[in-house]
Q: What sequence folds into this?
């Protein structure tokens, strides 16, 4: 799907920080904004991020999730799952966020965004949803949505178009990156093709994963 539409732009304000995480109040509880919201290099205007060590910053300025994937979770969990319910800033329809290629660029309204990484589920996410095994189920489903960097800031609102601008030839998707994080080490060599399109956090993770794989390989050779 190369063309879609913004369903909503979602924010966590100081008034909806109702989830407690190990870092204190969490900004995972996001609600649709009523008007246009500026997407900027450092994040979404008016949004609240508490744990800035692991979330936010230029390479995770925006988190996008597809309405179609929300519908999957509604069926999976047996309850209504609306915009913002997985902590996403952008809910989009008709556009594949989980099949997005690392480094691909989107035109969202007048903003230009670039895919940098999948969302990795955490205990705060499971607590917010009230589903203790959600982290495992989220990893297994491989519907992570994607983090994006903002290359051209602009105000975005519900109803704006979402269009693919370009996509790297390596073809490595955010779902494949999540699969490696979840233990699919046979995909590590494939995922490494996208190294130059990861953000700093992604490159650091990839370097550690490849070093660990090399140590495992060396150990196996010695035992052999």
A:
């Amino acid at each position: 799907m190369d063309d879609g539409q913004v369903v909503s732009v979602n924010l966590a304000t100081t008034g909806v920080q109702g989830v407690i995480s190990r870092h204190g109040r969490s900004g995972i509880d996001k609600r649709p904004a009523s008007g246009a919201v500026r997407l900027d290099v450092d994040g979404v205007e008016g949004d609240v991020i508490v744990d800035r060590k692991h979330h936010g910053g230029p390479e995770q300025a925006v988190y996008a999730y597809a309405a179609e994937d929300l519908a999957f979770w509604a069926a999976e969990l047996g309850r209504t799952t609306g915009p913002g319910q997985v902590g996403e800033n952008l809910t989009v329809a008709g556009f594949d966020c989980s099949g997005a290629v690392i480094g691909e660029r989107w035109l969202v309204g007048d903003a230009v965004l670039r895919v940098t990484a999948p969302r990795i589920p955490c205990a705060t996410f499971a607590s917010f949803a009230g589903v203790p095994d959600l982290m495992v189920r989220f990893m297994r489903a491989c519907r992570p949505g994607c983090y994006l960097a903002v290359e051209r800031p602009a105000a975005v609102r519900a109803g704006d178009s979402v269009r693919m601008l370009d996509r790297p030839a390596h073809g490595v998707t955010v779902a494949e990156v999540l699969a490696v994080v979840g233990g699919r080490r046979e995909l590590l060599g494939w995922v490494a093709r996208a190294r130059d399109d990861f953000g700093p956090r992604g490159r650091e993770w990839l370097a550690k994963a490849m070093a660990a794989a090399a140590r495992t390989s060396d150990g196996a050779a010695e035992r052999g």
Remarks:
- Residues 200-223 form the longest helix (24 residues).
- The chain has six helices and 13 strands.
- The first strand starts at residue 3 and ends at 11.
- The two ends are 47 Å apart (CA to CA).
